[in-house]
Amino acid sequence: MSPPASVLSQSVRRPFRLAHFSDPHVLHTTSRWGLLRTCIRPALTSHKRFLGLLNLVFKRGPHTFNRRLLTHGLADCQALRPSPLQTAYLSTIPTSASGELPPINGVDHIVISGDITNLATRSEFATAADLLERAGLSSGDRLSLIPGNHDIYVPDSLVDRFFHRFFGQYMSSFSIPPRSPTPMLKHEDASTVASRDLGASLTTSVAPAVSGAVPHEEAERQGLLPKGDQKDPTAGTLSGAILSGGALEHQGFPYERPLPEHGVLIVGLSSAVPQRPHYAGGLLGKGQLDRLDAILKRPEYADMFKVVMVHHPPVPRYNNPNREQRDGLLDQEELCRILRLHRVDLTLNGHMHRTYFEPLPDTPTYSDGSPQSWVGEPGSCTFNSNYGPMRARYNIYEIADGRVQRVVSRFFVTPRDAAQEEKFSEHMLDEEVLYEAPNYVCQD
C-alpha cells in the first residue's frame, strides 16, 4: 500500500514525523506510604501542594499515572516502521544514494507539552529526567518540551527553578556544553547531580533567562513569593488566582528550535503560572506574546512548517464557561490572533487529558478544502484508563509539502493488575487514524 505520487510531487525533503506526548505526571514512587514519606515536608510549605498530596494519596492513588507507559511509548515511537508516505518517498530515491540517507525508522522529533510532574518536587523532576535519559533522549537534540501548571505548581517553583535546571537542554536550539563531573552530596543521586551541573551551565554559559535557583531572601525582595491572603477585587477569577511573580517564569520563553534539515520550526511557550488552590488555568502575558509575534515574522522562518507548543488549549475546550475561566488559558484570543496572522500550521497542547485534533477556528483552507492550521492534543500518555478518549496515548503527525498529511494516535490497552503489568509489551499498543489529507489515499 502506498500513497499516490502526487503527494510527493513537490517534496524536496523526506516526510517528517513528529511524536507528541503530554501530561505524563511522573511520580517518583508507586507507594502511598512512599508518597507521604517523601512529599510531606515540601507539602507542609504550601497549602496547594498539601492538598495535591492528599488528593494523590487518598483519592486518585499513585497508580493513576503509570510512568512505565511513558517509557514504553518513547521506545515505541523510536522504533516505528516507515509510514506509507515514507515508503513511497524511499521508492523515489536511487538505490546508489539510499545508503547515504539517515535512518527512516522511528520519528524525527519528539515533543512533550507539559505537566511532566505532579507536585513539582525535586524527586519528581529527578525521576523524569532519569526516565528521559534511559530512553536515549539525554542530549536534547531530538526532544523539545514545555512546562505545564503542575510543573510550576507553587511560588517556590519560581525560586527553585527545577524545570529549567533539569530540562534546560530540551528548550534551546543549541547543546549544553559538557562539564566536569560533580561530586554527589548526601541524599543526592546521579540525576540530582546532573541537574546541578545543568543549572550551572545555564547560569554561566547559556542564557541568564534560564538561570538556576534564586535565593529565598532575594525572591522575597523581588516580590516573587505571595504576601499572604490579601483581599483582591479579582478574587474568584483566574486572574485573581495567579500569584505574584508568575510572569517571571516566562522570561526564557518563547524558545525556538529550527530544524532546517526538515524545514520545520518548533516554538515553545509557557502558560504555567503558580496559582491558588483549586485553580489550574494559564497565562502567557503580553511580553511573551510579543516575543512570539517577533519570532514568527522572521523572514528566515517564512517557508518553514511552524509548530507552536503551549500547555493550555488555545481554544475553549470546557463546556462550562466558569470552568473555562478557572482552568483555561486567560489570553486565548490574543494567542489565536497571532497563530492566524502568521499561519501557524500546527498548535499542540496538553492539559485536558483527552485526545482531539481539529482545525483552528476561522482558519483559511487550501484549494482542496483542507484547513491550513490545526490544533491538537493526545491526552495523557500515562493515564491508567481504558476509556477511549482518556486512554494513555501519544500522537504522530506526518508532515510533507508543508502540510499535515496524516495524524495517528497510538494508545495503550492499560494493564489492570500486576500480572498484566509483568506481561506488558509493545503488542498492547493499538492505533487509530485521526486525520488523513485528501490526497493521502493508500492504494493496493
Automatic annotation (TrEMBL):
InterPro entries: CNP_phosphodiesterase-III, Metallo-depent_PP-like
Keywords annotated in UniProt: Hydrolase, Metal-binding
Entry keyword Signal: no
Domain of life: Eukaryota
Region spans: Disordered: 208-240
Annotated GO MF terms: hydrolase activity; metal ion binding
Keyword Nucleotide-binding annotated: no
Name under which the protein is recorded: Uncharacterized protein
